[in-house]
Amino acid sequence: RPNETTEQKLVRLASKRVTKAINAIRLVGNLRAYKPTEVQVDNMVKAIVDEVQRTRDTLRSGKAARSSFSL
């Protein structure tokens, strides 16, 4: 998109990426079919919340941090 402004690119990419993130979180909710324990639920939700907080900090400061998750 050669004539796209920075703002237009941000809106285009953010719309796609945030929608994908929301859908991925909804898929995590589908794990209820496997009857996770309260501890497993808490661990999954904490990992998601922590990543959202890191993402917010990255968007504000410009400093990226990487993380991963396992039960």
What does this 3D model show about the protein?
- The protein has helices at about 5-30, 40-60.
- The longest helix has 24 residues, at about 5-30.
- It contains two helices and no strands.
- It is mainly α and about 70 residues long.
- It is elongated, with a radius of gyration of 16 Å.
- The N and C termini lie far apart (about 40 Å).
- Helices cover about 70% and strands about 0% of the residues.
Query: Shape, please?
Result: elongated
Report the span from N to C terminus.
41 Å
Helix count, DSSP H or I runs of 4 or more residues: 2
Order of helices and strands: HH
Radius of gyration from CA coordinates: 16 Å
**Ranges with pLDDT <50 over ≥5 residues?**
none
Main sheet specs: none
- Strand tally: 0
Secondary-structure content class: mainly alpha
Strand coverage percent: under 5%
For the residues shown, what is the average pLDDT?
95
Fraction of residues in helix: 55-70%
